[in-house]
């Protein structure tokens, strides 16, 4: 059978594909997910388990945060130790967000909640057991060839997104090259069941040069162990249930392990595609940038990328803007966002590799010292929470250029390319919690309602992008307004990133 559809075709119904379908639905754009698995990722094979604060802000915007809150467990700090003592504690409490914690949930549950929410929108169709085996495109449409049981069929759609994970077929067919950064090490991940009184709201990271490891709680009775597979150890043996049981008995001698659920060994490395789009095809999630598992964050970077992509695709579907320029901006910005996390992960991987006791002692001294610097701790946890990413928006197609206003790089708490500060209005909701592809102006400088209104009108005349009819007028005493001499407006994208800061004279 041959089909022509006006839906966006998403290849892969993992966390990123499902989240993208929900984001598109918020903009009233329908999508079709083709997923080769008959069911969600199995419960006992949980991979991504952590939702960082910025990801929780996204869930809130999607209106499904409560569903995650009901099922998840919470972590409020990271603790780094060596074999002897505590070195550094990083609490989430200093974060400027309603979510001063990370939420843990097995990937199976994440996919189940996302899938149910996507189907409830009435705008998402999910075909499970349908494997995409080939793709193509013309100037007007994309083609996907799908295998379902013994039959194959083709679909033609306006756009296609490859959310098909790190072994992506979409990227290969598009002939987009991937770079692989290898850290020369293997690591193991094991999930297990445990009855114990160990603290559950902390991630324990033990920087033992003989074998660094970490363990933490991620679901009722469920814990995860991450450990280095040492040089010379057989990878298969070092990721057997027997090996993990021995390791757990050694590291946690006073607790009773009930059951080991899943163990896997991974090469420590990271993949990065040269670009994230070609014609009408886009890559998102692990297919664009595969993160190393031991440091997590792959799902977070992927879903935040889907947020950056969603409004751009919606504008393209509605033929409101030049597709190529929009996708170029998505590619450029998301690549910088993913690179930042990959560089961060590289630090973690290099630390995992340290086996020299002298180097390890030096590291302990440095970490202990850093623990006395509150600003270091605040900045590090903000980075971990993915709240302070600064994207390269300069020259983006939606950046505002006008003769009557000058562009600033920052103004008080407002920084170009960063997510807008998390302001809540009187009802407790975020001003950008709306389902619109429109950008929004926010007055952040001098307080003078009449003149602000006048300046806002003049800004709207020059704008090429769809803009919300009203600007956001934050209170005179708000800490988010810097009430100096100048009238200043921030232009914020539907994904809450600041694309322009304009000073009017
Ligand atoms: C052990 C481990 C622990 C991790 N922990 C974390 C963590 O705590 N936090 C975090 O943020 N990230 C973590 N990650 C990374 C995270 O799992 C991935 O980044 C995330 O799953 C990527 O989501 P995705 O939707 O892009 O890809 P995937 O989850 O890989 O989903 C891709 C989907 O596409 C489907 N598919 C593939 N090919 C086709 C095809 N041809 N046709 C149809 N369907 C297809 C697959 O069946 C799959 O369902 C971890 C990874 C591992 C391995």
UniProtKB/TrEMBL annotation:
Pfam families found in the cross-reference section: FAD_binding_3
Phylogenetic placement of the source organism: Bacteria, Bacillati, Bacillota, Bacilli, Bacillales
InterPro entries tied to this protein: FAD-bd, FAD/NAD-bd_sf, PheA/TfdB_FAD_monoxygenase
FAD-binding domain residues: 7-341
Keywords attached to this entry: Oxidoreductase
Protein name: 2-polyprenyl-6-methoxyphenol hydroxylase
Domain of life: Bacteria
């Amino acid at each position: 059978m041959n089909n022509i559809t006006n839906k966006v075709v998403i290849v892969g119904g993992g966390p990123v594909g499902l989240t993208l379908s929900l984001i598109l639905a918020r903009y009233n754009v329908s999508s079709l997910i083709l997923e080769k698995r008959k069911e969600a990722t199995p419960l006992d094979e949980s991979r991504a388990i952590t939702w960082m604060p910025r990801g929780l802000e996204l869930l809130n915007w999607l209106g499904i945060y409560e569903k995650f809150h009901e099922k998840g467990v919470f972590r409020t700090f990271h603790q780094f130790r060596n074999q002897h003592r505590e070195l550094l504690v990083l609490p989430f409490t200093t974060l400027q967000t309603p979510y001063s914690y990370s939420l843990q949930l097995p990937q199976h549950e994440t996919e189940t909640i996302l899938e149910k929410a996507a189907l409830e929108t009435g705008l998402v169709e999910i075909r499970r057991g349908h494997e995409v085996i080939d793709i193509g495109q013309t100037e007007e449409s994309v083609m996907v060839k799908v295998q379902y049981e013994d039959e194959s069929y083709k679909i033609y759609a306006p756009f296609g997104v490859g959310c098909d994970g790190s072994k992506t077929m979409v990227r290969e067919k598009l002939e987009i090259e991937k770079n692989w950064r290898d850290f020369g090490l293997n690591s193991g991940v094991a999930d297990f069941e445990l009855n114990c009184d160990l603290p559950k709201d902390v991630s324990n990271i033990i920087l033992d040069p003989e074998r660094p490891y970490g363990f933490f709680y991620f679901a009722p009775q469920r814990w995860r162990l991450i450990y280095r597979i040492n040089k010379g150890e057989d990878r298969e043996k070092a990721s057997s249930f027997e090996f993990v049981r021995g390791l757990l008995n050694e590291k946690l001698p006073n607790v009773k392990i009930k059951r080991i659920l899943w163990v896997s060994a991974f090469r420590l490395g990271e993949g990065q595609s040269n670009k994230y789009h070609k014609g009408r095809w886009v890559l998102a999630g692990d297919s664009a940038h595969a993160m190393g598992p031991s440091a997590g964050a792959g799902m977070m970077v992927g879903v935040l990328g889907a947020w950056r992509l969603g409004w751009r695709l919606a504008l393209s579907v509605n033929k409101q803007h030049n597709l190529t320029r929009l996708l170029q901006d998505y590619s450029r910005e998301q690549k910088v966002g993913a690179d930042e996390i990959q560089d961060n992960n590289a630090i973690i991987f290099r630390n995992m590799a340290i086996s020299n006791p002298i180097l390890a002692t030096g590291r302990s001294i440095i970490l202990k010292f850093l623990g006395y610097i509150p600003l270091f701790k605040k900045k590090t946890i903000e980075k971990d929470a993915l709240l302070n990413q600064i994207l390269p928006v300069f020259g983006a197609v939606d950046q505002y250029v006008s003769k009557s206003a000058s562009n600033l790089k920052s103004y008080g708490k407002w920084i170009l390319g960063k997510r807008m500060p998390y302001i809540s209005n009187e009802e407790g909701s975020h001003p950008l919690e709306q389902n619109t592809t429109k950008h929004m102006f926010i007055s952040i400088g001098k307080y003078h309602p009449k003149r602000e209104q006048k300046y806002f009108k003049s800004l709207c005349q020059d704008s090429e992008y769809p803009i919300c009819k009203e600007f956001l007028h934050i209170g005179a005493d708000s800490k988010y307004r810097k009430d100096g001499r100048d009238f200043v407006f921030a232009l914020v994208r539907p994904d809450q990133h600041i694309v322009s800061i304009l000073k009017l004279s």
